[in-house]
């Protein structure tokens, strides 16, 4: 337990210290986005998963080192498999964060550009089309301080699915998870057989890694929900002596808590897909290696609701709103396509929306802890 506590402190401290440096690096590299829900529309560095990943790796590997040195019993194989999966999926998230739609930039920025040639003009004074395009791209990629917006376009669903599969293989290779599952409140047990590693695990992994990204849109929303959910998984794992699962879940909690200092309203850094993918993968890995799939699945009620709401719009709706003069947010859509929309319709501010949804998730996690501990 001391090793776990020390590793969590190390993970929290490393993220807390490293994040300001990551912010400067990402801004200088042109990896930033525009906070659309602020009056000044500030440029904020994205890809907050980078410092969180650093702290997460530090926390988990320190725990493994301490348990090895002290001779404490620990399943290093499971921890390494979970860590490998998280690293792979975080890399995919980073690629998603830095992907720029160059063709879209060229089409948008040069659509109204006319090229005229004055025969009396010196060649050196002519702005050729390729020079115009280069200047436009330089602005968007952050090489100019006058940039007003970013044209970042995430990977399409097919590449995501293909890239996600290798991240799952380490967990399958070590035999993580249970092929049998008992039905709650009954004595009946389902033996999934090969359906578990070939269908259920890939489907669950793909959903969970994207679920954290689906329910976002306000400062601190994805991070607070991740903090609450991972803490619940960690506590349940400890209560059931699933220490490896607790290490993964609580390491995510500690590093997310440190990052929340910079992502909570008003945010100075955005999480990006590198964080949301990382968080989803860590949650999935902790649940699977701890064989607590039923409990883990029960915590994702809000995410499932958000999924079906977004599906109504064919995943084209935005969770974030339009800032009003009184500080409240107004939904961009007439219909409800996100859990944030009914709160916006009630005149909630950005901070209040985050706290409300995080509070609902906290209550639900406590209820599920009680149900799976006392009832099942």
TrEMBL record:
InterPro entries tied to this protein: Glycosyl_transferase_4, GPT
Topology of this chain in the membrane: Multi-pass membrane protein
Function: UDP-N-acetylglucosamine--dolichyl-phosphate N-acetylglucosaminephosphotransferase that operates in the biosynthetic pathway of dolichol-linked oligosaccharides, the glycan precursors employed in protein asparagine (N)-glycosylation. The assembly of dolichol-linked oligosaccharides begins on the cytosolic side of the endoplasmic reticulum membrane and finishes in its lumen. The sequential addition of sugars to dolichol pyrophosphate produces dolichol-linked oligosaccharides containing fourteen sugars, including two GlcNAcs, nine mannoses and three glucoses.
A cellular component annotation (GO) from this entry: membrane
Localization terms from the record: Endoplasmic reticulum membrane
Family: Belongs to the glycosyltransferase 4 family.
Enzyme Commission number(s) from the entry: 2.7.8.15
Electron transport recorded as keyword: no
PANTHER family hit by this protein: UDP-N-ACETYLGLUCOSAMINE--DOLICHYL-PHOSPHATE N-ACETYLGLUCOSAMINEPHOSPHOTRANSFERASE (PTHR10571:SF0)
Pathway(s) this gene product operates in, as recorded in its UniProt entry: Protein modification; protein glycosylation
The keyword Iron-sulfur is assigned to this record: no
Primary site of residence: endoplasmic reticulum
Needed cofactors: Mg(2+)
Domain of life per record: Archaea
A single GO BP: dolichol-linked oligosaccharide biosynthetic process
Protein name: UDP-N-acetylglucosamine--dolichyl-phosphate N-acetylglucosaminephosphotransferase
GO molecular function, one term: metal ion binding
Transmembrane segments: 48-66, 78-95, 161-182, 194-215, 221-239, 246-265, 277-305, 353-375
Reactions catalysed: a di-trans,poly-cis-dolichyl phosphate + UDP-N-acetyl-alpha-D-glucosamine = an N-acetyl-alpha-D-glucosaminyl-diphospho-di-trans,poly-cis-dolichol + UMP
Keywords recorded for this protein, A-Z: Endoplasmic reticulum, Glycosyltransferase, Magnesium, Membrane, Metal-binding, Transferase, Transmembrane, Transmembrane helix
């Amino acid at each position: 337990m001391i090793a776990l506590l020390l590793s969590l402190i190390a993970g929290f401290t490393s993220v807390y210290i490293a994040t300001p440096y990551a912010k400067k690096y990402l801004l200088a590299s042109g990896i930033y986005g525009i906070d659309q829900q602020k009056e000044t529309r500030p440029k904020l560095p994205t890809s907050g998963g980078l410092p969180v990943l650093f702290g997460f790796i530090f926390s988990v590997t320190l725990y493994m080192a301490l348990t090895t040195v002290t001779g404490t019993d620990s399943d290093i194989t499971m921890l390494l498999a979970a860590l490998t999966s998280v690293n792979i999926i975080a890399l995919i998230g980073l690629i998603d964060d830095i992907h720029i739609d160059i063709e879209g930039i060229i089409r948008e920025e040069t659509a109204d550009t006319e090229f005229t040639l004055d025969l009396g003009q010196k060649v050196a004074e002519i702005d050729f089309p390729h020079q115009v395009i280069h200047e436009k791209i330089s602005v968007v990629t952050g090489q100019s301080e006058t940039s007003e917006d970013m044209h970042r376009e995430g990977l399409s669903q097919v590449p995501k699915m293909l890239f996600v599969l290798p991240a799952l293989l380490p967990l399958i290779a070590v035999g993580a998870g249970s092929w049998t599952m008992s039905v709650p409140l009954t004595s009946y047990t389902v033996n999934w057989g090969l359906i578990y590693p070939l269908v259920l695990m890939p489907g669950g992994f793909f959903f969970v890694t994207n679920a954290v990204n689906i329910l976002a849109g306000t400062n601190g929303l994805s991070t607070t929900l991740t903090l609450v959910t991972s803490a619940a998984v960690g506590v349940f794992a400890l209560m059931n002596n699933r220490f490896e699962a607790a290490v993964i879940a609580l390491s995510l909690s500690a590093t997310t808590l440190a990052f929340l200092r910079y992502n909570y309203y008003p945010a100075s850094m955005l999480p990006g897909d590198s964080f949301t993918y990382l968080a989803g993968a860590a949650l999935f890995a902790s649940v699977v290696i701890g064989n607590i799939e039923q409990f883990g699945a029960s915590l994702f009620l809000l995410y499932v609701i958000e999924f079906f709401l977004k599906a109504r719009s064919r995943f084209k709706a935005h969770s974030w709103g339009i800032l009003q003069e009184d500080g409240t947010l107004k939904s961009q859509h007439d219909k409800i396509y996100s859990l944030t929309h009914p709160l916006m319709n009630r005149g909630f501010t950005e901070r209040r929306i985050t706290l409300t949804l995080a509070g609902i998730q906290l209550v639900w996690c406590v209820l599920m802890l009680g149900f799976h501990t006392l009832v099942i």
